[in-house]
Amino acid sequence: MKILFRQMVIVIIFIAVSASVFADEGMWLYNDVPAQLLKERYGFEPTSAWLEHVQKSSVRFNSGGSGSFISEDGLIISNHHVGADALQKFGDAKHNYYRDGFYARTLKDEKRCLDLELNVLMSIEDVTARVNAAVKPDANAADAFASRRAVMAEIEKESLDKTGLRSDVVTLYEGGAYHLYRYKKYTDVRLVFAPEQQAAFFGGDPDNFEYPRFDLDICIFRAYENGKPAKIEHYLKFSSKGVSDGELVFVSGNPANTSRQLTIAELEYLRDRFLPYVLQRLNSMEVMLTAYSARSDENARRARETLFGVQNSRKARDGMFAGLLDPQLMAQKQAAEQALKTAIAKDPNAKEVLNSWNLIADAQQVTSRNALEYNLLEGSNAFNSTLFNIARTILRAAEEKPKPNGERLREFRDSNLESLELRLFSEEPIYNDFEQVKLTDSLAWLVKQLGYSNPVVQKILAGRSPQERAAELVLATKLKDVSLRKKLYAAAPADVQAANDPMIELARLVDQEARAVRKIIETQDEIKRQAHAKITRARFAAEKTGSYPDATFTLRLAFGTVKGYQENGQAIPFQTTIAGLYERAASHNYKPPFDLSKQWLDRKNKLNLKTPLNFVSTADIIGGNSGSPVINRAGEFVGIIFDGNIQSLVLDFAFTDVQARAVSVNCQAIIEGLRKVYNVPGLADEIAGKKRP
Amino acid sequence: MKILFRQMVIVIIFIAVSASVFADEGMWLYNDVPAQLLKERYGFEPTSAWLEHVQKSSVRFNSGGSGSFISEDGLIISNHHVGADALQKFGDAKHNYYRDGFYARTLKDEKRCLDLELNVLMSIEDVTARVNAAVKPDANAADAFASRRAVMAEIEKESLDKTGLRSDVVTLYEGGAYHLYRYKKYTDVRLVFAPEQQAAFFGGDPDNFEYPRFDLDICIFRAYENGKPAKIEHYLKFSSKGVSDGELVFVSGNPANTSRQLTIAELEYLRDRFLPYVLQRLNSMEVMLTAYSARSDENARRARETLFGVQNSRKARDGMFAGLLDPQLMAQKQAAEQALKTAIAKDPNAKEVLNSWNLIADAQQVTSRNALEYNLLEGSNAFNSTLFNIARTILRAAEEKPKPNGERLREFRDSNLESLELRLFSEEPIYNDFEQVKLTDSLAWLVKQLGYSNPVVQKILAGRSPQERAAELVLATKLKDVSLRKKLYAAAPADVQAANDPMIELARLVDQEARAVRKIIETQDEIKRQAHAKITRARFAAEKTGSYPDATFTLRLAFGTVKGYQENGQAIPFQTTIAGLYERAASHNYKPPFDLSKQWLDRKNKLNLKTPLNFVSTADIIGGNSGSPVINRAGEFVGIIFDGNIQSLVLDFAFTDVQARAVSVNCQAIIEGLRKVYNVPGLADEIAGKKRP
């Protein structure tokens, strides 16, 4: 259940505020953990040392997931499907590490990732007052947005200059708070170990978002500094005992996005416009990628990670859509909104606060009218091409970089340029045929959405069919050459234009429209942000309970109980074993995606088949939590999140622990697998705490 | 490239008229073959005996394809993918004839198809004058439609009573002509032989609509009468020589639908509304069916034929859409329309005729506005469920049958009832889980299209989520019971209502809306029909060349040359061999869909590897021609159509023989396969003309 930033399917971001909390609900801020609640319910009091240790052991994968340090020499564990992006980029016609796995016997064999950036959260600072002070109370929404963007860029730049740390101002509670997050960055990250995909993603798409599960969804990297393994103070020790039924566990990771505090008007937009659009887009891409993959093994290799991402997104969003079509869930949402409105009636600014719902609904209408054009032109749904993304970045860099920091499009702020350049100058392989297929398909998608006669469509097609146009663009652009990218990225706008690269010229052709519609959406977001801020303040006053903001792909602490559940009258146990893996494979006659690799078949009799493989807990997670460590009271690593069950897909909108569960790999299965299936005792020893030789 | 009537994806039918003809163009009427042209170009003069022989050897599969008699004892050959519907319905959890193939060693072993109806065209009668006379010149479109429907039903009923033959009035040249087609019907059709799907559909979806090809896409049935093999006067003898490069061949089959004579306004509707909608629908179904199939072998078996049909449709329509986005094709269409308008200016009724284009464009606008609701409610896109189709037929039968024949919905006309009942009372297996998955998905599709708050959507969902509603309907309906269907089909409306079956009640719930929107579409069709009739008459006067009407799933004769083509600077040869099959499988490491069954692998050294396997010709074909015999001058069977190449997908709109080719199985490969791979000498002997023992 990885979130896919590179997918560019999620383009309108919903941000919102939080309310009162039940059961094991909550994706808590590290500077606002529910200490009282944990003490009362579980008799557990996390010390500040415990919290710092867990926080600094946690790692964010900027490609879209979570992970953690597990050795003092910089070993990091995440999911195979989080590592997939890096694995895919290593591959070529003769090597399919994503499918076949990888192991580096020595440090020298560890393979450096092409464009992977990891972040470790070092500190959080509340900068709400400074951000709000920069926005004049009577400013219109467009000016307010500009002022807010400027002050955020300024704070980030100051912090970067002062500390050398990656510095991001994060909008929480939708303007209820602005916190400055400072991260230590690792950009020299090397691949140490990945199992074959059969084991990591046993059951494939059919078993994705399902439970019981039997997956060894892990991938192990090492962080380097100055060409040597990084020395890590805070890392998690593997528990030797795994988990037991009913145990309290913590999850420290980066949930990407939730929509729990959206108003009904915003939820209706998701249900009526956003999800229908995204699902159609995903279906269309899945069919295109599946058909392309079926033509040859090499095609399948090239499209593998993209296809998995699309299928994963499709299944997640199908579940979200089903949630919004569940009359009970919507009734519950409506009742909560009504109750809050009633409670707020006592607020001195009640009228103004109540009007915030109308302002949000109106802004959502404007967003709704512009969302299609935004998704197609600014969100690049019309240009599904790596080369196009490179072209647009180069075009815009030339225009944005000369501007003052605070006036640039947000991705070009000074404090973000290093991260942007890491991706822009990636040596990731780019395949002409795959680029052409994707671009042809997305140009046809554009035609289907806006209609052939639309002037923008006509301008983009330039008198060609989508297929001809895609071929002409992909074959003529020179942007596969990274040195050319570096040259143009450093060039003045006139020199970029003089390069006369057709893909850059395509980006230029639509840039005015794309920027214009982006401005509309950003302005509506500012209106919603201000309105949500008012609702949030009134809510806090009315409810007086601890709370947490909706997910923002920043580090959060969740907690929960290791616990099975009931489904169709059956008790689903809290954990599975390695024996269960063999049974499930046999029950499907070892047919893909239920097949096992030769090493798993050959070494079955060496394994302790009773070793727990996967387990479930009530911890509150969502996409982006993939790879998050699961931690016990002692601060030990007991497992790693890799999925949620099908009932968890509504967690985007509301927490429930009746059947919804987070699914993890047990730490014991990891060690058992490394030692007995993969025969990599050195790696297992390092994880177990033995010093590297 | 089978057409899928049961798919209910194609719902708005386009009918049109024909113009002058080039090269080997033409899907000719049997009562209007281009004798002069054949004589001049090929020195071939088909005698009336030759024509009658070919016509009466040709068989229409009402499940959506073509075929031919190949023995005096009723053997019929068609494609495996045309037989797929029957093969699928025979299967159960223990038998997968569709995948694994079938052979009946004795007559007793031949398996009777559950609901397959075959038609052999016996005569054609021009009834244009009588149909037109029944429509008052000053009638409005709705009345004109009613009068036309009534007289057609009357003619059909008279003919059925008089001859006992299935009698259909076919609208040709869109009202330029109405012909009465009389068919001998076979409803006792038994399966004799099918190869495994690996051989029949070697290369699967990747190679579908591609060439070179290596497929043994055949399926052999036997027609029975009175419980015994039918005695057939007209059947095709297999040629012993196959085909040679440059040879003239004929194709006798039932092309389902072409759009060559649509006006630009109608083509733009296809491009801007119809195809984008249908492609999204197909993508969505393909993802749903693929995901369902991946869960288990048994699921895959249940969904197999449906999934193939959807993929086939998707690929065909992708090609059509690409054709309409080709500026050259559209420019050619526009130029032709303009040239025709200029030519017509000399017509005494020029003004009225020229106005016909406006009338069509206006009617198309109305159709366009109503098409979505029509597709969802009347076309059943919202109710993708076999049980729903049964329920609707029962509901409507009770209301329609008491009406006078001419006033009924056209499918309930007297002359069609036997065919309707054959399908309604089919013992085809229906699976609750598959029904639920399909119905859930299509109800969600409905929500996505009309929006959750739409009153019709709310009425249909009845306070449930799509999943809950589908489960409640599928599990509670009693319509799986064929005896109940028979009882209710014979019952009065009040008794159908008293049965209180939830699926019938769902059909009732939307029946008013469905009938209303159907009436709108049918009325617009009448307007277009009258307008097209005027254009056609004027065109014939202006052009004075022989012509043929757009395809209507009625028997047509096409002709062409056996001939390779150039692609990307390469010469693509006119035929492939069995050796090529083994080479292609090896080059894909025998991975599905490029794998070979054990018998093909084991018996390779018994085969003459030089035997021609597939060949291409310039004959003018389209979906529905699947299974059509390819015939030489001597009237012998030389091959069987099973596909068109990717360049042929634009044939829907315009004929071209530059690269577009029809793809056939060579008759020699059929005999070689039957004797040496499948080891069925009895069947091969019967086809070779030996008397059955």
Structural notes for this entry:
Two copies of one chain form a homodimer. Chain A has 693 residues and is an alpha+beta fold. In chain A, strands 2, 3, 4, 5, 6, 7, 8, 9, 10, 11 and 12 form an eleven-stranded antiparallel sheet that branches. The first copy, chain A, has an eight-stranded antiparallel sheet with strand order 1-14-13-19-20-21-18-17. In chain A, helix 9 crosses helix 15 (432-450) and helix 13 crosses helix 20 (502-509). Mean pLDDT of chain A is 94; it is low at 1-21. At the A-B interface, helix 8, helix 9, helix 10 and helix 15 of A face helix 8, helix 9, helix 10 and helix 15 of B.
Sum up the structure in keywords.
homodimer, 693 residues, alpha+beta, 11-stranded antiparallel beta sheet, 8-stranded antiparallel beta sheet, 25 helices, globular, disordered N terminus
List the helices and strands and how they pair.
The structure is a homodimer of 693-residue chains.
Chain A: E1 28-29, H1 35-42, H2 48-57, E2 58-61, E3 65-69, E4 75-78, H3 80-90, H4 97-100, E5 102-103, E6 111-112, E7 118-126, H5 128-133, H6 141-163, E8 166-172, E9 177-186, E10 188-194, H7 197-200, H8 204-207, E11 219-225, E12 228-229, E13 248-253, H9 264-294, H10 297-324, H11 327-344, H12 350-378, H13 386-400, H14 417-424, H15 432-450, H16 455-461, H17 466-476, H18 482-489, H19 493-499, H20 502-509, H21 511-543, E14 556-561, E15 565-567, E16 570-572, E17 575-577, H22 578-587, H23 598-602, E18 612-617, E19 629-631, E20 637-644, E21 662-666, H24 667-677, H25 681-687
Helix pairs in contact in A: 3-10, 6-21, 9-10, 9-12, 9-15, 12-21, 13-20, 15-17, 24-25
